[in-house]
Every structure is written in C-alpha cells, then in structure tokens.
Design a protein that fits this description.
The protein is an alpha+beta fold. 20% of the residues lie in helices and 45% in strands. The strands form two sheets. The protein has a twelve-stranded mixed sheet with strand order 7-8-9-10-11-1-2-3-4-5-6-12.
C-alpha cells in the first residue's frame, strides 16, 4: 500500500524532467515574434558582403502579364549584375544590366544596343532596382508594419510568413503602393518568396530558385564588355535640355503648337527638349500635365484601358488611370506625333488637345 504514492511521485518527477529537457533542447520556451524574425533577417543582410542567385518573377500589371527568370550578382556597397535568362514576352530575353558603382550598362540584344549611363543620372525607380533586392527589402521592412502570419513550406524549405503593410505617414518603400507577403527561410533568414499586390494596379510574385551567400565574387564580375557590332549610346550625349518656349519654336523644325485652353490656374513651368522631342510642362496646384510633340515616334503611354476617340478630326488613343486620376491622349497629325497627359481628367485632356494652335 505505501508504495503507490512513491510510484505516482516517480512518474511526476519523470514527466517534469522530460518537459524540462524538451524545452531546453528545442528552445520552445519562447516562440519567435515578427520582430525577432526581422532582426535575424537584418543580421543576415548585414553579414552578407556579396550574393549570387537565380530568381523567378511573375507579374500582372493592369492586364499585361510578364514572366522572367533573372540571374543576379550583388556585391557591397554598390555593384550589381542581372541577366534575363528567360522572358515572356521575349522582347528583352537575354538583356543584361551591369553596374560597377559609377557607371551602368544596359544591353538589349534585340536591338544589339548598349546604353551607358552615369549612376547618378539614372531615374530613381531604376536606381532602386539596381541597388539590389537586399536594399529594397530593407526599405520595405523599415517603412512597414510587420505581422507574423504563420509557417509554410516553400519548395520543401520551412519558412515563416510575414505580412508587410505600409506605416501611416511613412514614405512608400515599394515601387507601387500596396502590401507584401514574405516567406523567410527559417535557417538562413533570407526571403525565399515574396508576393506584392497593389489593388487595381498590379500584383506579382518573386521566388528564389537558388542562392549563394558570400561566395566571394570578384570585381571582374561587374565589368561589361560591349558585344561585337553593338551600338553604344551614351546618355551623357542625350541629356534633356531645359529651354525657353521661343527656343523650342525655333529648334523644332515643325510648327510647335501651344494650347489656347488650359485648366484654371495652370501655369507653364518648363519646356524640355529630349533630342527631337519637345515637352511643355504645366503645373495645376501641384499636379502636372504635359503637352508633347515630335516628328519621331513617342514612347508608349501608361498601361490601362484604352479607348478610341476623335480629336482634331483624327483618331486618337485615350488611356484612363482612375486610381491615379490621370489621363493620356495620343494622336498624329501632319506628320507630327502629339500627346497630352498627366493628372487631368478625360474631358480636360481632350479640351487641351482641341485648343492647340
């Protein structure tokens, strides 16, 4: 009879011992929080001097689908190389960009052309891309509220799922306004997959196929050799010029037209010349719109739903971006290509175009 309590006490001590050892071995006393995961990600980024990987990107921007596979090399503080291994549509398949910290080279094999640009002259959006995934992810983390959603496997690897939502009042860190979900490798603390959605505008997924941290990349990886026969174009020779309206009219080589009607309060604030293209820039209470004219083909307009309209007795193409409150109207007449676009409504764009003299 007296032995039963001893048996119960023995089982209780054994159970306590097992629980204690289990907690000590697996570290389950404290579960990781979103802040813990972000801190470990930042430790990995801070300890990574260079990296090499292959990533797959799929995106849909206002109905336009894109799939690319990119091989990337990055080295602190400012060297990047990226090559499109696969692309759908294949317009830029094989394209390559190399940045050595001071100069960038963009090679388009379809046109067999290399565009050389000083890094300081690259558009802000392009600079963000070539500064590497590490910098983009870090900016997104700094400017977002981060929440731990749970755990999930990505291609057989265990990950933590984090949601990123822009903080109130913070400057937008991502290329477009939206939210993101990150899948973070539980062992190496790098992003294996990312999903970005901007309602009504775009959504896309990035997934890492392979990666290597601190492989010891040589600086020669970030040098570029111009392919035989390729045309080399330097943006230094094609910088946009700020000129007066009188100078634009004298240099155009065609009758440069100006609007007889502009929205109330609109002011001509600049006249730009980009090779043979002339742009009149107007400001309306902090919102801009432009009137562009050239005998050369104009760059394509923004993505969106297109509508055919009649302007100045010719057919024109109108694109409306309701979310941004913007319109883009393009047409051709008398051998000259015209475009009116910016933060103006459809009716205003057409009215400005009709008033050109």
């Amino acid at each position: 009879m007296p032995r039963k309590p001893l048996i119960k006490a023995g089982w209780l001590l054994a159970l306590v011992g097992v629980l204690f050892l289990t907690q000590a071995v697996c570290g389950c006393i404290k579960k990781l929080t979103a802040e813990d995961i972000v801190a470990r990600m930042q430790e990995t980024m801070n300890s990574t001097d260079d990296a090499h990987g292959v990533v797959e990107v799929t995106a849909n921007v206002q109905g336009l689908s894109m799939e690319v596979v990119v091989e990337m090399w990055e080295k602190r503080p400012d060297k990047t190389r990226a090559k499109l291994l696969e692309a759908k549509p294949d317009t830029f398949a094989g394209a390559e960009i190399v940045v050595d910290g001071q100069t960038s080279w963009f090679y388009n094999p379809g046109e067999n052309q290399v565009v050389v640009t000083d890094v300081s002259d690259m558009p802000a959006g392009v600079q963000m891309i070539v500064q590497g995934m590490e910098g983009l992810i870090q900016r997104a983390l700094d400017a977002s509220d981060v929440e731990l959603l749970g755990e999930e496997e990505v291609a057989g690897t265990k990950t933590y799922m984090l949601s990123l939502t822009p903080k109130e009042g913070e400057e937008q860190a991502l290329p477009v306004t939206g939210t993101a979900t990150l899948w973070v490798d539980k062992k190496q603390w790098i992003v294996l997959k990312a999903y970005l959605v901007a309602p009504g505008l775009a959504e896309g997924t990035l997934q890492v196929r392979s990666f290597d941290l601190n492989p010891g990349l040589d600086d020669e990886v970030f040098t570029f050799e111009v392919p035989p026969g390729a045309e080399v174009v330097s943006t230094e020779d094609e910088k946009t010029q700020h000129i007066t309206l009188d100078e634009a009219e004298a240099q155009a080589g065609f009758d440069l037209l100006t609007p007889d009607y502009v929205p109330a309060g609109a002011t001509l604030v600049d006249v730009l010349k980009d090779r043979d293209t002339f742009v009149l820039l107007y400001d309306v209470g902090g919102a801009n719109f432009t009137v562009t004219q050239s005998q050369e083909p104009l760059p394509p307009g923004p993505l969106g739903v297109e509508e055919a309209v009649m302007v100045r007795d010719v057919q024109a193409t109108l694109v409306i971006d309701e979310d941004a409150g913007a319109s883009f109207l393009a047409w051709q007449e008398s051998g000259v290509n015209f475009a009116v676009g910016g933060r103006i409504g459809k009716d205003e764009a057409i009215k400005i175009a009709e008033s050109l003299k």
